[in-house]
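R.M. (postdoc): so does anyone remember the format we settled on? I'll just put the structure tokens first.
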């Protein structure tokens, strides 16, 4: 039962981390020689999305650590397979969420449908 609970917590943590990475994309955070912000929303709404992303990633870390403790606790505490499984699952979750965060922040902005003239006047 403990193993099933630990894997379920891992799955929930990974989903929360994926949602956190998605919030960075929705907030319009980007990277172009430094952090940039693309304004897809009204003023101030993008900052709310960044806040949701940071909170989601903090909850992801907390639930992931909880999952590792559940998998390594109880009668499975001395089990080599429990240690290996918890380490592998945590590594997979960290890799997936970090790759998604880097991808969403580093993805280039698509070209505008209505580009500005070269002299930057409309």
């Amino acid at each position: 039962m403990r193993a099933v609970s630990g894997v379920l917590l891992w799955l929930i943590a990974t989903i929360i981390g994926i949602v956190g990475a998605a919030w960075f994309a929705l907030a319009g955070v980007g990277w172009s020689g430094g952090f940039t912000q693309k304004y897809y929303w009204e003023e101030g709404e993008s900052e709310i999305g960044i806040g949701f992303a940071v909170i989601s990633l903090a909850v992801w870390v907390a639930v992931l650590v909880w999952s590792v403790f559940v998998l390594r606790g109880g009668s499975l505490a001395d089990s080599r397979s429990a240690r290996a499984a918890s380490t592998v699952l945590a590594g997979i979750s960290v890799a997936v969420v970090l790759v998604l965060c880097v991808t969403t922040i580093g993805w280039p902005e698509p070209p505008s449908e209505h580009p500005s003239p070269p002299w930057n006047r409309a």
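R.M.: ...and that's the designed sequence above, right after the tokens. Also worth knowing: The CA atoms of residues 10 and 67 lie 5 Å apart. The chain has one domain: 2-106.
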